Amino acid sequence: MKRPGSKKLPGEKLQRQRLNTLAKAPRRITQRELDNSLIGRMVSSRRAKRIIASISVGSIAILLVIVAGATFSPALAIKEIYVTGTERIQPELISKALQGHIGTPLPLLDENAVAKSLASFALIESFSATAVPPNGLQVKISERQAISVVAVKGERWLYDPAGVKVAQATGSEELPEIQISEEPRNSQRYRNAIEVLMALPEDLLHQVEFIEARSKDDVQMSLRTSREQRIIWGDSSDSVLKSKVLQALMANHRKTQSVTFDVSSPNAPVVRFDNF
Question: For the POTRA domain, which residue ranges apply (predicted)?
């Protein structure tokens, strides 16, 4: 207690200043307190991660159950099959061949199994299967397209590029006739001729009446004209350039002229008039 008129001693004043300084200074955290704090945070973080992991696993499990239920649900089973794109094949025959897939859930449809069901149809070149929810399946057919006529045992047939018989020729088709003596599918001469025909522009293709591939390097063609006009093509190389050169040569000559166009060397074409 301070008495009136009393004076502070120098030592007492210095002691009070030290106490005030210590009171205002921030308290230092001990190493033990720091370790305990870090451990607490790590424990809390691990608990949080375990909770999140549990929630994630549970969510995935629920999602898998939902997906599995939807996949195998009878509500998505195939009940109707729609066939499109056919010209020569009766769509009813294709639908009948695919009846084994009725009842299959749309998500589980195997295109390889569909292909196996359609393997007996030689005229099918390719197909696509598309789901039509909730219970429909659309099968779009691409049939083989004829590119040539081949005489086999006295009968003329239409064949596609792979050598598959498409239909019997009627005589009205403006397709080139490939002159071979063997079955097209097993004929190298047929493949050599097809390689050239596939490179021709469509308008030029329909002007070719006959084509013969004596060898891979010796392909010749005859045009549909009132007089004999022949083309010496050579091999299948530079087909685009040969086509352009040939069309330019043909434009400068009448269809009534007997002429041979030699484009086997397209950079140096030769035109021979057979009347001379």
Answer: 76-144
CATH for the stretch 76-143: 3.10.20.310
- DSSP secondary structure string for all residues of 226-262: SS-EEEEEESSTTHHHHHHHHHHHHHTS-TTS-EEEE
Q: Residues 212, 214, 216, 219: is their CA dihedral positive or negative?
A: negative
The Cα 268–Cα 264 span in angstroms is 9
Query: 246: how many CB neighbours lie within 10 A of its CB?
Result: 23
Please give the CATH number for the structural domain made up of 148-273.
Answer: 3.40.50
User: What are 147's two structure tokens?
Assistant: 């590119």
Distance of CA 225 to the CA centre of its chain: 42
| 19 pLDDT more than 80 | no
CATH topology match: 76-143 vs 148-273: no
Domain locations along the chain: 39-71, 76-143, 148-273
Task: Pick the most confident of 36-45, 134-143, 267-276.
Answer: 134-143
C-alpha pair distances (Å), 214 with each of 171, 178, 217, 224, 232: 25, 11, 8, 20, 11
d(CA 120, CA 53): 53
Q: Does residue 160 carry a pLDDT above 90?
A: yes
Tokens of 122: 């030689």
pLDDT, greater one: 19 or 196: 196
pTM of the full structure: 0.67
Distance, in Å, from the CA atom of 104 to the CA atom of 116, rounded to the nearest integer, reads: 16
Per-position DSSP letters for 98-155, written without gaps between them: TGGGTT-BGGG--HHHHHHHTTT-TTEEEEEEEEETTTEEEEEEEE----EEEEETTE
